[in-house]
Specification:
Number of strands: 0
Strand content: under 5%
Shape: elongated
CATH class of one domain: Mainly Alpha
Pfam family, one: CH
CATH superfamily of one domain: Calponin-like domain
Family: Belongs to the calponin family.
InterPro entries: Calponin-like, Calponin/LIMCH1, Calponin_repeat, CH_dom, CH_dom_sf, SM22_calponin
Protein name: Calponin
GO cellular component, one term: actin cytoskeleton
Order of helices and strands: HHHHHHHHH
Distance between the termini: 121 Å
CATH topology of one domain: Actin-binding Protein, T-fimbrin, domain 1
Number of helices: 9
Largest sheet: none
Structural class: mainly alpha
CATH architecture of one domain: Orthogonal Bundle
Radius of gyration: 44 Å
Length: about 250
């Protein structure tokens, strides 16, 4: 099987745009740091082209074996493409067991077919961070925070149920003292200002005005109400005048 079967053609349209954006995120400074770390750990020289030097998977397998001996038991130094892909697959499986998260791990084609070098770089940075967290001397990556698990006695947990947390808010000492029952009349004034004898029978202009309107003449709810204007309509008792008006 020739290498031509594993090489993709040029990308066009949206694929070319996505590939260009991924390439822009690649950090050359991080590449130098990773190169120095990997070459120090494995004792091998990667070469001028960083990704091409890692494409056969041999250096990657040696790297994880230095971090955790016995992670990859068999390394293929053959020039056959399937042997190179097998090495990359063994490396991916080994770093997953080592503790690198699945979303940080690249796929084999990202390296072998030059599909996403940015993701390969992110995986190596995540591996360096995991190695630093485990106590290895690594000058690249960050050290992950260790899990701090706390255990409380059952008595402490029961006491906490009786305390209202600040996240639930506070009423700052407010209460419903002095509140009247729903539906009853309530006078709103401030006793401290001497308003005990304030006039509550008149409606202030600030509360609006009904302009003299009233409910005088209104019928009780549910009773029929005759609506007519005496100027244009005769009263119900003026039947004789109505007959005279029609006979004229």
């Amino acid at each position: 099987m020739s290498s031509a079967h594993f090489v993709r053609g040029p990308a066009y349209g949206l694929s070319a745009e996505v590939k260009s954006k991924l390439a822009q995120k690649y950090d050359p400074l991080r590449e130098q740091e990773l190169r120095a770390w990997i070459e120090t750990m494995t004792g091998r020289r990667i070469g001028d082209n960083f990704m091409e030097g890692l494409k056969d998977g041999v250096i990657l397998c040696e790297l994880i074996n230095k971090l955790q001996p016995g992670s990859v038991r068999k390394m293929n130094e053959s020039t056959q493409n399937w042997h190179k892909l097998e090495n990359i697959g063994n490396f991916i499986t080994a770093i997953s067991r080592y503790g690198v998260k699945a979303h940080d791990i690249f796929e084999a084609n990202d390296l072998f077919e030059n599909a996403n070098h940015t993701q390969v770089q992110s995986t190596l940075l995540a591996l360096a961070s995991q190695a630093k967290t485990k106590g290895n001397q690594v000058n690249v990556g960050v050290k992950y925070a260790e899990k701090q698990q706390r255990r409380f006695e059952p008595e402490k947990l029961r006491e906490g149920r009786n305390i209202i947390g600040l996240q639930m808010g506070t009423n700052k000492g407010a209460s419903q003292s002095g509140m009247t029952a729903p539906g009853t009349k309530r006078q709103i004034f401030e006793p401290a200002l001497g308003m005990e004898h304030c006039d509550t029978l008149h409606v202030s202009l600030q509360m609006g005005s009904n302009k003299g309107a009233s409910q005088q003449g209104m019928t009780v709810y549910g009773l029929p109400r005759q609506v007519y204007d005496p100027k244009y309509c005769l009263n119900p008792g003026d039947e004789q005048l109505y007959e005279l008006y029609n006979s004229a």
